[in-house]
Amino acid sequence: MKTLIHKDKEFIEAVIAKCDVCYLGMADTDGTPYVLPMNFGYKDGTVYLHSAQEGRSISILERNPKVCITFSTDHDLVFQHPEVACSYRMRSKSVIGWGTVAYEEDYDKKIEILNILMRQYSDKEFRYSDPAIRNVKIWKVELEEVTCKEFGAPHKK
Known about the structure:
By secondary structure, the chain is an alpha+beta fold. Helices cover 24% and strands 45% of the residues. It has helices at 9-18, 56-63, 107-119, 130-135, and strands spanning 2-5, 22-27, 33-38, 41-43, 46-51, 66-79, 88-104, 137-142, 145-153.
């Protein structure tokens, strides 16, 4: 089994599309790490997230808006020999991206982004109440750098 590095945009976006959660890592100015599992939307190299207007993550991002986002899918425990522990490995695909959080405040753009978020999970059309739009914090992370790996890929014979 080996690890493959993928650079193809279509492959990377297919991995992201299969995920239902991403993990967003941030670092406070004193270096303290903070990682959140979040639902998300993705379109054209940008990850969209949402949250309450206040909280620990918002406080950290006010001090340091740089983030790392991880997506992981297709997890399957595989092995080369059932009696050899070090031959076991988790087969999976992952994408890691880095960027800087910016917030969207425009009312109509918030609706567009919420629709992108919901399309990650459903083909339904949704409506949003005025208070919901006004009170949601919309995050945008343009991915400045991306890596993609496939772990535990079988060797071709």
